[in-house]
UniProtKB/TrEMBL annotation:
<dbReference type="InterPro" id="IPR036380">
    <property type="entry name" value="Isochorismatase-like_sf"/>
</dbReference>
<dbReference type="Pfam" id="PF00857">
    <property type="entry name" value="Isochorismatase"/>
</dbReference>
<feature type="domain" description="Isochorismatase-like">
    <location>
        <begin position="30"/>
        <end position="198"/>
    </location>
</feature>
<protein>
    <recommendedName>
        <fullName>Isochorismatase-like domain-containing protein</fullName>
    </recommendedName>
</protein>
<dbReference type="InterPro" id="IPR044717">
    <property type="entry name" value="NIC1"/>
</dbReference>
<comment type="similarity">
    <text>Belongs to the isochorismatase family.</text>
</comment>
<dbReference type="InterPro" id="IPR000868">
    <property type="entry name" value="Isochorismatase-like_dom"/>
</dbReference>
Length: 241
């Protein structure tokens, strides 16, 4: 049997996924990373998918499901929205998700959360939502949100698994290990609630500046890296009410 490259990779750097149960007593918080048109809606911008993408569609569906549960329970939700000032580039990416355009807004399936009283929206202009939460006075919107809500379990979903989701998770785990995040115990990355983009090597060969980014492989690598830093990777998230 000839193994596909992605299967070889999964055999070489495997990781266990678990089923995570969240109950009324869990003190859970949900973080949605960049589930915005500019990264998720077909044709919505320079970094948006060019055609419908199964991994991205599933990520949106699963994220919406968990957001519905959190909002019904009035549990805390924080949504990061990548939003850049015009003319201020984010190296090495082309201009994207400019503030005030629809690219930087939540996808239609999630736009309703903006009206929910338990939801905090944080526009950020860098990959890492933890760094993007630093305000001019030095305070941090994310750190304050975790502490004020006494969050013990953080559930993370969004895009891209190996970029903004991973960077945020790594910074959060570092901060937690330093004791900066109060009662926070577990950072859970919900794998089916995450996605990344697809840029196969066959396309990257034609471009001297862009790195190849095969979707299935990089999604796996992102989860693997998060797990290596101490996150839990959940294949299944169940709510016990
Ligand atoms: Zn950006």
């Amino acid at each position: 049997m000839v193994l596909q490259t992605v299967e070889i990779l999964k055999n070489e750097i495997p990781f266990e996924e678990e089923s995570v149960y969240i109950s009324e007593d869990s003190k859970a918080g949900l973080v949605l990373v960049d589930i915005i048109n500019g990264f998720c809606t077909v044709g919505a911008g320079s970094l948006a998918p060019r055609e419908p993408n199964r991994q991205i569609s599933e990520m949106i569906e699963e994220s919406e499901k968990v957001a519905r549960v959190f909002c019904a329970k009035k549990w805390p939700v924080l949504a990061f929205l990548d939003s850049h000032q015009p003319g201020k580039l984010e190296h090495p990416y082309p201009p994207h998700c400019i503030t005030g355009t629809d690219e930087s807004n939540l996808v239609p399936a999630l736009s309703w959360i903006e009206e929910e009283p338990n939801v905090t929206i944080r526009r950020k202009d860098c990959y890492d939502g933890f760094v993007g939460s630093i305000q001019e006075d030095g305070s941090n919107v994310f750190v304050d949100w975790v502490k004020n809500n006494k969050i013990e379990v953080l559930l993370v979903v969004g895009i891209c698994t190996d970029i903004c989701v991973l960077d945020f998770v790594c910074s959060t785990l570092s901060a937690k290990n330093r004791g900066l995040l109060g009662p926070l115990e577990d950072v859970v990355v919900y794998s089916r609630g995450c996605a990344t983009f697809d840029f196969p090597v066959s396309m990257a060969r034609n471009s001297k500046d862009l790195l190849a980014h095969p979707q299935e492989m990089m999604h796996h690598v992102g989860l693997y890296m998060a797990k290596g830093r101490g996150a839990k990777i959940a294949r299944q998230v169940s709510f016990i009410m």
